[in-house]
Structure formats: C-alpha cells, structure tokens
Amino acid sequence: MNNIKNNKLELIWIGKDKLPRLEPRIFLESKEYSYFNVSEDIGQDGGQDFSNLLIKSDNLLALKALEQDFTGKVKCIVIDPPYNTGSAFSHYDDGLEHSMWLTLMRDRLVLLYQLLSDDGSLWITIDDNESHYLKVMCDEIFGRGNFVTDITWQRKYSVSNNFKGIASICDRILVYRKSDKFVNNLLPRTEDSVARYKNPDNDPRGPWKSVDYLNQATPEKRPNLCYDIINPNTGEVIKNTKKAWKYDRETHRKHVEEKRIWWGVNGTNTTPAVKLFLSEVRDGMTPHNWWPHEDVGHTDEAKKEIIQLFGRQDVFDTPKPERLIQRILTIATNPGDLVLDSFAGSGTTGAVAQKMGRRWIMVELGDHCETHIVPRIKKVIDGEDQGGISKAVNWQGGGGFRYLRLAPSLLQKDEWGNWVINKEYNAEMLSAAMCKHMGFTYAPSETQFWNHGYSTETDFIYVTTGSLAYDQLKRISEDVGEDRTLLICCKAFMSEGAEFPNLTIKKIPQLILNKCEWDNDDYSFTLNVLAEPEEYELDDEDDQ
Questions:
Q1: Which parts of 127-169 are beta strand (E)?
Q2: What is the pTM of this model?
Q3: Domain positions in the chain
C-alpha cells in the first residue's frame, strides 16, 4: 500500500482519491448545557475567558465548521482516535477495514493541519496496529521534516501469565509540528532530579552534583584534550592514558580558579570531577520519548479516575489518565493557549486543560457528550473534581464553556427533488450560514438593515429570502455609497436593466448549490468513504 512518487514515499489505499465536499455549517448553542461559574469564592474565571467549546457533532463536519474562525489559532491538538483493532468492522475484510480507517484519519488530519498555529503541534495516541501507516500519512500532510518524535507510553504495568505470545504494554504518541516555529517547553524538575544535587562541602554556591571529567575519545583521537592535571591534595600527577579529558586546558584552568574541581570527600580520588550547580542548570528537564507509567499514569489509573467521577467506567474502553494529558500540555502549551481534541471520549483533555489554565475545544458525537462530559466539566468548574491532577495543580475551580451543536444542512430537497433552503433556518441562521459560505464575517449592524457581515472594511453582505425590486436596489445602492461594495444574496430581483456598480446581486440557493455536498450528517466509519471501483485504478508501478 505504498508507492514512490517524486522521490517520496506515498501511502495509497482504496478510496484515497475520493475527497469529501464538506458543507461549512454554522453552530447553534444549546444553552441548557452551557455552564459558567464566576463566583468570587471560586477564583472568578479560573484565569480563562469563556471561549471553551464543547461541540456535539460528527467531528469531520465540526472541524470544517471551525475552519473559518480558528484556522491557524490552535496551539495544541491532542487526539485519541479509534485504534482500528478490527472490532469496528466485523463485517468487512481486513483490506477494506484498513482503507476505511485511513480515509477517516486523512480527512480529519487535513483539517487539523489547517487549524494548527504555525508554532503549534499535534499529538496522536495510537497502538502498533496502525502507527506506522499513520506516520507515513502524517509525513505526507505535515511534511516529513515536521515529525518531532514517536513517544512510547507504558499504558500497562503488568501482563497476565496466561497471555500467549508477546504482550503489548505500550502505546505510541506520534508528535508533529506545524513548522519550525514550534518550541517545546521543559518539564518541571522532579524531586528525584533535585535530590541528585547535594552540598557535602558546604559550598556557598549551593547544591551541586559532580560531572565526569573524562571524554569517551581516546588520547590519539583528541590530543588537544590531553594534558597533566595535578591533584592539589595529594600532589599526584594525573595523566591521560586511556581517555581524553572533556575540557581543554583553558577551561580546566577556569575550573581550578573557580574552585569547581572535586576530588572526592577525602580529596584523594584518582580522577577529578567538575561541580555543576543547581542554580546554573536550566529551570526544567529536557523531555524524552520514553514515558513510564510511574511518570504519566496507566490505563488502570485512568479507569479509576472515571469510576470516581461517574461511579462506573464501562462506557469508556480506553480512557487516558489525566497525568498523560498534563505531560503533553506542559510540553506543548502555555497558560491561555488553545487546545483542541476532536475525539473527546470521556472529556479528559478538556478537564486537564481547564485545570491547567488553557482554553479548549472538544468534539464528540455520542450521547455521552451530554450524559458524561458535561457533568464532568461542570464538576471541574465547580471545584468538586479533586481527582486526577487537581491536587498537583491546586485546582479550586472556575471558568465555563459553551455547548454547541451543528445546524442542520442549509439546503434540503423538497418533495419534487429540488434543492431549497431548509425550513428550520430563520433569517438570522440564514445570514450567518451565507456569511460562512461566502467567506464573510457574520456581524449584523444595528443601524444598517443591509449590513449582515463583512469581508473587508469596505465590502459587506446582505442576505434575504425576499425578492428585491428596482426601487429597493436603488435605495440600497445609494445607502452603500461609492466607497463601499455589497454582495446581495436574495431569492429573486428585478433591476429593470439598470446597473449598480457597488452591488453584486446573486440568487440563492443557486449561488451555493455546487459548493459542497448537502444534507449529509454522517462522515464516520461507513462504506461511502470508498470510491467506486471504476474510479480507482492502480498504475503499473503501484505496489499492491
């Protein structure tokens, strides 16, 4: 399932060439689920604004709907997509199943790439079943040079003795950046790390640890790092016999002057060491790609967190521990940054982001969006959730979120098979939807009835289901003036042959009829992601 194209490895699969023509829907708020807590005794808004969004929707349509307002604004994307273990496709053969999974991931990753800021990063948890294919796909979308690392997370701490074969106790976390503007943060120093720095000689500069003075190179390879060192305590001359020193003569001289050389508690060590003071090292630790469960938690810990919140965990097969998400957000974000999770699951990403002072967007289609995620985030906001990382970050509550759902499709077929404007759309919804379709910002004026939004400071849009007569168009044109332009989207119009240079008049729905696929609410694991057989042909050199 790969091919060499233009000297690059290209992943191919059945249906890859069939790209969805997504409708950019508008959002509607379900205020009965939105929630805010700004009481004085709980810390005002927790250091955040109210831009947190919980969206109940097919996540591909939701990402398309977010595109206009959030392109280039998301600092960190954390997703835990379906692992494609086979259970989702019990009626299909392996090849078909694999192709469907790849298509689902490709369509979403393309939009996620657009949403990321230039200094942003994407973190995907996955297992070995698809991780290698997923990496090649991400190389195509993000560019191979923007691959950051492949982290191994120890999700289990034990293996059953009854297991036959080689047990898998680790998952992968693929990390990609949007560009070379991404700079990761250091991790806080652990107690064990700080404990390595001691002060056995009461040095006034504080705790330190000894660093080996020997290089790995032989004296023959690095003769410039070979010289005699005298132990001032014993007078012994220390020569390079097997290894060179790490430092040149001038640096060693400075070490001596600064009293950095350590010869052991009794001063009689046969080789020197140099003092590295805690006050001089970076304020943090370099992240690496081995994350043991002791550091970031495991699946059993995650299930216990879910049980503590909901009383049971059977609705979530593979929850992630809060400490795992905390580690990711610590490395990839700072307070106030925007975090996105389009496979929200039990809502762990939003809960952790809230506690860490990050803004967040989560997308989830299932009913547990209302039955589990909403109650969970409410507990976080009210300060009632003291599990997970709450005590570690001293979380006391605060903040809020808006609960959104997608509007239905703007166009639907009538009883005669003609595309018409959906009857569920009122005037406000129609104006907002047309603004999104035509690339305008929806911002209706309180004083100008024809001003529903803008694309520039002088270019505006007016949306109406009415029919406009010549006199109406003339009056609007005069009000708009010579220095501004207006796009009018209406049902019909009569200009009586007159031209209005500052007006562009278009009919709806004809204006948008061919822009996208209409009235499709499901882009999940279904057979419609596959191309028709005649639309997919392998080249002779393609690897089957």
A1: 147-154
A2: 0.86
A3: 30-157+167-188+286-406, 191-280, 411-507
